[in-house]
Write a structure and sequence with these properties.
Helix 6 runs antiparallel to helix 8, helix 7 packs antiparallel against helix 11 and helix 8 packs parallel to helix 11. The chain is of the alpha+beta class. The protein folds into two domains: about 120 residues, Beta Polymerase, domain 2; about 120 residues. It has eleven helices and four strands; from the N terminus they run αβαβαβααβαααααα. It is globular, with a radius of gyration of 19 Å. About 35% of the residues are buried. The chain has a four-stranded mixed sheet with strand order 3-2-1-4. GO terms for molecular function: transferase activity. It comes from Streptomyces gilvosporeus. This is Nucleotidyltransferase. Keywords: Transferase.
């Protein structure tokens, strides 16, 4: 049961696909056009099945000089070392040529994995609901419609407990301010998104907005609302409080991991993760 207050769903209670090429602002349109043009140069039709944008640029909320360019590439086979090297080259090229983006990130997956049963409520949902088609046949046509269920919550974010030791190791090993700032931003984003999906089935909707995500979480867990709001702020301004990374990893994160297990259970292990 949900409380019926959520947004981001259609009349049937299914996710409305987030983002559109029509929402890409004029400042970011040249970046997107160049990405599409260069995909063929770096991968070619023999490797690339389809490409997608996700994040703030296709949502129309990107901020010049602050936002990054996020894309997912569905390859005809599992990505190789050469594919990953080509992606890193393309990321560097785009970042160097376009000042309106603060970095570029390309995710690479094989089509079979994206459409596989184990990924149906994780990567499959991500492509079908959070990714905007850029080039090639849209894989969403081969995926189901999705609702904000406990199964979806479990399969997308039910692995925080398993990743906490690694995140703490990375925090201990971060030797420079820049490294800690990047890690703080990543950890904060993950905690806000995990906190939101913890309550997503009860709220009965979807949002990618970090501020709204923290606010929705706080309605259900007021004792932890202030911590989550701090994480939301750090996701956008990670250098404002240098000590926050340790506070999050020692306080909010372990509580959130335990609560997630109690409410939704652990994410199903994937064959490639064993």
């Amino acid at each position: 049961m949900t409380d019926g207050r959520g947004t981001g769903l259609d009349r049937d209670g299914c996710f409305v696909r987030e983002g559109s090429l029509t929402r890409v602002s004029a400042r970011f349109a040249p970046v997107v056009a160049e990405l599409r043009a260069r995909l063929a140069d770096h991968f070619g039709p023999g490797r690339l099945h389809s490409g997608y944008l996700y994040g703030s640029i296709p949502r129309g909320t990107a901020v010049p000089g602050v936002s990054d360019l996020d894309a997912l590439l569905a390859l005809r086979d599992e990505p190789t070392d050469d594919d990953r090297a080509a992606a890193r080259v393309l990321e560097a090229e785009l970042d160097a040529e376009f000042g309106q983006i603060d970095g570029a990130g390309l995710l690479l997956f094989g089509v079979d994995r994206l459409l596989s049963a184990p990924e149906r409520h994780d990567l499959g949902w991500f492509v079908a609901c959070l990714c905007t088609p850029l080039t090639g046949p849209d894989l969403a046509a081969r995926l189901p419609r999705y609702r904000p269920t406990s199964l979806l919550a479990r399969e997308t974010n039910g692995d925080l407990f398993a990743d906490l030791p690694h995140l703490r190791e990375k925090a201990a090993a971060a030797a420079t301010e820049a490294e800690r700032t990047r890690l703080t931003r990543g950890v904060a984003r993950r905690l806000v998104r995990t906190g939101f999906t913890l309550v997503m089935p009860r709220w009965g909707g979807w949002t990618s907005d970090l501020t709204q995500s923290a606010d929705v979480f706080g309605r259900y867990y007021p004792a932890h609302a202030e911590q989550m709001r701090a994480a939301s702020h750090a996701a956008r301004a990670p250098g404002a409080r240098p000590e926050l990374l340790d506070e999050l990893l020692d306080g909010l994160a372990p509580w959130l991991a335990g609560e997630y297990l109690a409410v939704h259970g652990a994410k199903t292990s994937r064959p490639q993760e064993r």
